[in-house]
Amino acid sequence: MRLATKGTFCRAQVSCAAHFAVLLTMAMLAGCKPVGPNYNRPAYQVPAAFKESGSSTMVMEPPSPSGGGWKTASPADEKRRGKWWEIYQDSQLNKLEERISSTNQTLRQATESYLAARDQVTATRASLYPKFSVGPSIARDNVSQNGPSYSPGKDTAYNDFVLSGQASWEPDLWGRIRRGVEAARSNAQAAAADQANVELSLEAELAADYFQLRGLDAETKLLMETVSDLERQLDLTQRRLAGGVATEVDVAQARTQLETVRAQLTDLGVTRAQFEHAIGTIANYKLSEFSIPFSPLDGAVPEIPVGVPSQLLERRPDIAAAERRAAAANAQIGIAASAFYPNINLSGTGGFESLHGGTWIQGPSALWSLGAQATELLFDAGQRHALTDQARHSYEAQAAGYRSTVFQAFNEVEDELSGLRILKGESKEVQQAVDSAQHSFELSNQRYKGGVTGYLEVLTAESALLQSQRTEIDLRTRRFVASVGLVRALGGGWDAGQLPK
User: Fold this and answer.
1) DSSP track, 229-266
2) In this predicted model, what pLDDT tens digit does every residue of 293-338 receive, in sequence order?
3) 32 with 26: CB under 8 angstroms?
4) Which element (helix H / strand E) includes 345?
5) Same domain for 162 and 68
6) Residue 35: closest CA among 336, 414, 317
7) Do 157 and 213 sit in the same domain of this protein?
8) 458: containing domain
9) Which of the two ends of the chain, N or C, has the fewest CB atoms closer than 10 A to its terminal CB?
10) How many structural domains comprise the chain?
11) Mind listing the pLDDT tens digit for each residue in 366-402?
């Protein structure tokens, strides 16, 4: 169907009526409800409490409201955002972490992906509005005297001056474009959540590497002290040999123990260098100029506020990304369903045309045309039905992916909570073992100096003490790393209120 009229602007009321009709049509069409299902967040049964959480780390707050929309962040949320690593009160760690947002190229890639997705929202939304174009043309034409348009007595050569503008609009009667904007916006929000997840992962990885490096420094300090002690033990044994009290076996055992610990000390340098390189890469330093000062790990592991399980749905960026992709997939159902309805296009042309430049921009030279066209597809061999079913299945796949992400998030939180609880109890036991081994070593050393026992007893006691001390350092390091893992599992202070609107 196409309606068209051409004439002159000799009557102003015709033009006004046409403009009014177009505006009225736009207003009416803009109010039409989009086809397809409206989105609701996929349901997930959230437990009332974390299995492994204790009352000392619980921060009870109201659960998130149900429905598909994200809640607005509360003032309390602001206190948990941002620089979560500052709970460790480590200035060196703070300096390293703060470089990530401005220098890391992996994060830069995620940021640019988000910006591209945001631009797609603007590009899709532009289809809601009419398109206008304008252009002048000047031509010199010559009509064939043997052609059907030739008229005797009329010049065959003439000028043609045209200044015209065109307007076209496809009203979003069925909501195809609006659903497209909805999908693009959800994808942009998912990209923003992906960016936050990449940033959180990089921050957590750097912190974990940093604490492991400091754990190696603590172990290095222990081995250096042990080497100094073994050197004194070797000197004592050699003097006792010279005095006829000790044997060559005692000296050999003392030297063997000393060289073994020295080798272990050297080996720690390899692992420390690897952690230092990993940290420098994340923080985007030139590795040839980057180094971390020697800093043995000590101090207590800070308590991490856990909150109630329902808050986890709002504070994990990967959960937010999965949820937003489910929303985008839901919008695709409406886009597919809109294909069952006719396409309607409105168009208009207006301008001036004259044979002479002097009369080009004058009332009698005006021209205009208004038209409408509707097209309905009658047969497509089931393609639209298949595409609609495909969109529904894609949504169900994204909804299942969302629930799987939530399920995995709860698993990670429980793992980190149980790890911290078990490691804390194990640390107390190991500390008791260290104290016992220290006492045993002191007794054995006194017995050896008094000539009551051989050096083998001292060697055995010292080996047990060193092993217990290294285990204690390892557990301390693992507790710090586990606390970082818990922060990451809880979202690192991020919440869905930070998603772009």
Assistant:
1) HHHHHHHHHHHHHHTTSS-HHHHHHHHHHHHHHHHHHH
2) 999 999 899 988 887 788 888 889 999 999 999 999 999 999 999 9
3) no
4) strand 343-354
5) no
6) 336
7) no
8) 37-103+173-341+383-498
9) C
10) 2
11) 899 999 999 999 999 999 999 999 999 999 999 999 9
| Domain-located, residue 119 | no
- Cα–Cα distance between 442 and 299 in angstroms, integer? 26
Q: Are 90 and 272 in contact (CB under 8 A)?
A: no
Please indicate, yes or no, whether residues 140 and 265 belong to a single structural domain of this protein: no
Tell me how far apart the alpha carbons of residues 475 and 430 are, in angstroms, rounded to a whole number.
9
- Report the CATH number at residue 364: 2.20.200.10
Per the document, the length of the chain is 501
Query: For residues 170 and 345, is the Cβ–Cβ distance under 8 A?
Result: yes
- Tokens representing residue 372 in the block: 């409408």
**Structure token digits, residue 396:** 């169900």
Question: Does 5 score more than 90 pLDDT?
Answer: no
- Examine residue 121 and state whether it is found in any structural domain, yes or no: no
> Biggest alpha carbon distance in the chain?
142
Pair 144, 70 in one domain? no
Within-domain flag for 122 = no
Sheet holding 343-354, edge to edge: 131-142, 157-169, 343-354, 366-375
The whole-angstrom separation of Cα 136 and Cα 165 is 9
Tally Cβ neighbours within 10 Å of residue 366. Answer: 17
Q: Residues 401, 354: one domain? A: no
How open is the CA angle 278-283-286, to the nearest 5 degrees? Answer: 80
Q: Do both 349 and 493 map to the same domain?
A: no
Q: What is the distance of C-alpha 150 from the center of its chain? A: 70
